[in-house]
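If you are new to this repository, start here. Below is one unmodified record pulled from the training split, so you can see the exact layout before writing a loader.
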Amino acid sequence: MSESSQKIKFYNGEDIPLELHKVRVVQKLHLVTIERRLEALRESGFNTFRLDTKDVFLDMLTDSGTNAMSDRQMGAMMMADDAYAGSQSFVRYQKAVEEVLGKKYLLPVHQGRAAENIISNAFVRKGSVVPMNYHFTTAMAHITQYGGRIEELLYDEAYVIRSQHPFKGNMNLEKLEACVKKHGPANIPFIRMEASTNLIGGQPFSIENLRGVRAIAEKYGIRLVLDASLLGENAWLVKQREEEFKEKSMAEIIKTMTGLADLVYFSARKLSSSRGGGICTNDEKTFKELEPLIPLFEGFLTYGGMSVREIEAIAVGLYETLDESMICQSPAFIEYLVNALDSKGIPVVTPPGVLGCHVDAMSICSHIPQKEYPAGAFAAAFYLISGVRGMERGSVSNQRDEYGNETYADMELLRLAIPRRVFTLSQIKYVEDRMTWLYDNRQLIGGLRFVYEPPVLRFFMGGLEPIDDWAEKLVEKFKQDFGDSL
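And here is the target side for that same chain:
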């Protein structure tokens, strides 16, 4: 067994993920009572995004900016060069991008959605169409803000919740070519590939598929843009699932992927276990088109809205992305939780992907009509009975159309994010236990309705309320079964 496989067979026959790190700094957690959790839900408008962490036991909302940083990253932050312009911290960041991602030109931004704003501002115009394997909330918001629209071009297999297809994030090449022919290359500013598709369960794409997308992009002279925020995990699953790359190093796989894209952008909050982000390319003309927008929106060209300490951490984190024993930690824990829930008959997205365990709220809450936001209700219910904060990835995360009509999501998922090197196995087992109880009592969960709805990205700050008194009934049943237990 190689060290990087992170699995070890125990004498009792169990096959569980093994942490290949030790804990040296800890943060105290609190598990408040279920009565307080109900109060907290009311105060937050039954939106887990609005909960205060003082009321949260395990925070599985996102992996964005919540991955554990390494001792090397923390040490590098002490060496930061605080210059406004010409900082040597940026020089080190630029070198890391070139060596790890294979891109010469780098524009720093404060996070991934800032990169989306810059790229959309530069290339998207009214009437533009952007084909992609699947949308991400902020990517779609920025494209539509500048007058464009998106087309999602997945294969049908991607929408099957329980499946063994290894690359459900693949773009449908036939649909892509048809899209280009229908709208014309001049109306398509770029093709976007996301590694890995966040909203359908963190599912990866294969390099074989990316090569096919690249061939079509070259055929019609269209840019290929890669959202590389979860590039490391996508590369890890390529190594596990794509025969050609089983013996390749992470460095080779990552450079193969980025080498197929004209433009790469990423959120370092995901990619390198730190904060910030970047846009990078080998095309000087593209670089010059984007460069003037950085001082306008982000800050100067050598800090891009980040502190130089964050920049130092990103540089080290990029190199650590090549470390298999680090990058496989999150996928291994996700796989463990997905398999544990699946074995109990609880519907989850399979095969296990990246970012987190995605629970199928549409199926579990089939008694709740989609107009009452089953994934949002399920996220609130799970927090209520466990203190674990997950995130709704369903219709609440969608946005209304131009006429104000609801657009329902293809999937209604509760995402339980599992950041790198953050949770222990006992905490994962607690999640499994409480999810099992909620699944057995799922008929008690009711729907939600909006009482405050922002016009854009409503899942961040929107407020909802229960359709009836289902939350109180859930509390009552929990106390019957668990007594005074939290």
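Two things worth knowing about this chain: The chain has two domains: 3-63+326-482, 71-322. Residues 347 and 360 are 5 Å apart (CA to CA).
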